[in-house]
Design a protein that fits this description.
alpha/beta; 60s Ribosomal Protein L30, Chain: A; 7-stranded parallel beta sheet; 5-stranded mixed beta sheet
Length: about 270
């Protein structure tokens, strides 16, 4: 156990605040006892450091202390006022961890004979992207792709909203959707109701290799993607509801499509 040095605190603060630092060091921050405990139990080798206040350290149970010790993760102790300068929470939890970003093999994902994934175009709200990651893990999707102008999935707000699912789902950033055609994946688009889209409940089969595309929270999908879609659908909602947010639409879509038999002729 070590006292948190000012230089170490500064590097952690950079990870919290700056995407370029997270990208360069391939690290991200997890805050709170419960998410740290769950990730430590499932992925102990990913932990690079644990920072904890003296007060929080005194409250951890023996089982957590045992898992932490077996992981070999260095522990740094600091005062509450110091941790408050590192956290992006209004009320810091008293504990944060520095965790290594996972590395996924995109060609291995595309190499599967059947594939069901999501693609997000310019998704910028962490409160949407985090739940989409959780949904994808819960319903067994193979991967999530995001356009390069989408929010960083290792942003602390996305990390919290994903509730530990970040290390369980392959996630890739791509410049455009041409990659899907290269690997023989059909693009299926979630849209607002139009004569060109069918109701989701009318879809009875899905291509064996399908990626469902969701658009920006305010603008929707670009015309380029909808023009290249093999299947276009919408989710009917009651007139008094203006719209579904993208996380809600993704959850409904994942549940419905995960139950469908894949179309063997596609």
């Amino acid at each position: 156990m070590h006292k948190l040095a000012a230089s170490k605190a500064a590097s952690i603060r950079d990870l919290v605040r700056h995407k370029r630092t997270r990208d360069a060091e391939r690290l991200f921050i997890v805050e709170g006892l419960k998410p740290i405990e769950e990730l430590l139990a499932s992925h102990p080798t990913y932990f690079q450091a644990l920072v904890v206040t003296e007060t929080s350290l005194a409250t951890v149970d023996q089982s957590f202390a045992g898992v932490l010790e077996r992981s070999g993760c260095p522990v740094y102790v600091c005062q509450e006022r110091v941790l408050a300068t590192l956290s992006d929470l209004t009320t810091p939890s008293g504990m944060l961890a520095v965790v290594r970003q996972p590395v996924w093999d995109q060609e291995a994902v595309f190499g599967q004979p059947e594939l069901f994934g999501f693609y997000g175009e310019c998704l910028q709200d962490p409160a949407n992207v985090g739940p989409i990651i959780r949904t994808a893990v819960a319903l067994g999707l193979n991967a999530l792709w995001l356009s390069s102008d989408s929010v960083d999935v290792f942003n602390p707000k996305v990390v919290r909203a994903s509730a530990g699912a970040l290390l369980k789902l392959p996630i890739f950033y791509i410049p455009d959707v041409a990659l899907f055609a290269k690997f023989h994946c059909a693009i299926v688009t979630a849209e607002v109701p139009s004569p060109q889209s069918c109701r989701i409940q009318d879809i009875r089969t899905l291509p064996r290799r399908a990626v469902v595309a969701f658009g920006n929270e305010s603008r929707g999908l670009s015309a380029f993607i909808t023009q290249h879609a093999s299947l276009r659908f919408h989710i009917p909602i009651r007139p008094e509801a203006e719209s579904l947010n993208v996380a809600g639409a993704a959850a409904i879509t994942a549940f419905h499509f995960s139950e469908l038999l894949h179309d063997p002729t596609t």
